[in-house]
Amino acid sequence: MKITVIGVSTGTGALLASLAHEQGHEVTALSRRGAAPAGARALSGDALAPGIAAEAVAGADAVVVTVGGAKGVPHQRAAVTRAVVTAMQAAGARRLVVQSSLGAGDSGSQLPGIVGWAMKTLLAKPLADHDEQESAVVESGLDWTLVRPTGLTNGHASGAWRALEPSEQGTLRGSISRSDLAALLLDVLADDSTIGRKLGVSAR
Predict the structure, then answer these.
(1) 132 CB-contact burial (10 Å; exposed 0-12 / middle 13-18 / buried 19+)
(2) Residue ranges of the domains in the chain?
(3) 2-203 adopts what CATH topology?
(4) For 119-136, how does the pLDDT look when each residue is reduced to its tens digit (9 = 90+)?
(5) Average model confidence (pLDDT) for the chain?
(6) pTM value?
């Protein structure tokens, strides 16, 4: 599969690009610094700059957005995601997976009482960015999946996680390692049953 990862300087995006390459996929990695694991095609640039997102998604079978916020730049995630969606629509690329956050959109019910309140209060600005980002994805007309992790850690991969949609009973607590999240994102890419779904995820 030809996979483009948007946001690979550090964290989940870097781990995903590396894992996808190790599993034999053809990876294009876009970041401002041009960071990419060995064997991946590295693109350097801002996805909001003219032509950069289009170059990144050209020929891709699937695109994953794992961008974080940018200091002093409000709604960075939403802006980058909209640029990627527009580029995919123009290129005829269909499969899109976006890393959001638990607490965004309709996922508040998946957080246990006081935790949900605290997140909505303390993380109001980043969650507003994710809300806008998710709206751009849902309205895109693409074959999308939203993945909403709980807190992220740099722990080792366990190979096990829990995934719930808002309509399912239960809550998610704790955190998930970035390594496990990268593996889950790669699994989601290959699973068409996840298209149109919003998955809250945590460690099992």
Answers:
(1) middle
(2) 2-203
(3) Rossmann fold (3.40.50)
(4) 565 566 778 898 999 999
(5) 89
(6) 0.91
